[in-house]
Amino acid sequence: MRPFALRSALRAIPRTPRATPIASPALSSALLVRPFSSTLPTLKKNKHGQGAKSPKQKIRVTEDDEAGAADAEGAGEVVIEEVVEKAKGKMEKAVHWAKAVVFEGVERGRGRVTPAILDSVRVTIPDTPGTVHLNSLASVTVKGNTLFVEVWDSASLKQVESAIHGANLPGISPQRMGGTTLKIPVARPTVEQRAEILRQLSQTTETAKTQIRTARTDGFKALGGRKANGTDGVQKLVDEMCKELDEQMVLAKKEFEKA
Fold first, then answer.
1. How does DSSP assign 163-180, residue by residue?
2. Rounded to an integer, what distance in angstroms lies between the CA atom of residue 169 and that of residue 229?
3. What is the pLDDT of residues 230-245, one digit of tens each?
């Protein structure tokens, strides 16, 4: 067949129309390119405000805060209790000391002789800081109305004798017996001596009250001031201890009146 006839035959064959491509919506949106903008995007504000916490976060924070406050409050109660107990210990020590001295003073006013008469004696030893109790250097015994002080080291006899004189105990005047012994005759106290003993007991009571007030001051400082929590408890102890000492002195005066 001639070329011309072949081309004519091909043109006579009906052609199938091309299918128009259908674009996918997802693909179309993916291929879309947004136009460039020089304006910064505006962020949607949190309805709770900048830096605000969601209700759930607020609840969590509130619970934590309350727990922390409870812990702090509990710790504060422990601190207050410790401070009050410490102050109470100091005050009780002062009261016990004063009551012991008052008791022995009353016994002395009655004319009774006991080793406790020399309990207030403190001895100064060379090259030794502070003072030491007489019982650390000697033994004290009673025979009738006489005290005998047996010094364990003869080198300390002079210091012990000076300390007994320096204590200014009414009617007490030591006498040497040998190189280690002091003899102290104790006569029944006179009216003047009983008055002096009573005066010394009153002074002892006031000294104890001063120690109690010092413990109160230390307690107030530890609690954070006079108006801080827990100071009422400390002041209550002060009132009770001072009242106890006053009552003790009232009884002592009555006993001296009987003597």
1. HHHHTT-TT---EEETTT
2. 45
3. 888 889 999 999 999 9
**Which long-range CB contacts under 8 A does 69-73 form with residues at least 24 apart?**
none
CATH number at residue 151: 3.30.1360.40
Are residues 180 and 195 located together in one domain of the fold?
no
**C-alpha to C-alpha distance for 131 and 163, rounded to whole angstroms:** 10
**Whole-angstrom Cα distance, residue 22 to residue 38?**
35
H-state helical runs in the chain: 3-12, 25-31, 55-109, 157-166, 191-223, 231-258
pTM equals: 0.56
Same domain, 161 and 194: no
Mean pLDDT, to the nearest integer, of 95-119?
Answer: 85
Please name which of 167, 164, 172, 166 lies closest in space to residue 193, comparing C-alpha atoms: 172
| Tokens linked to 37 | 């903008």
**249 is in which domain, residue-wise?**
80-109+190-258
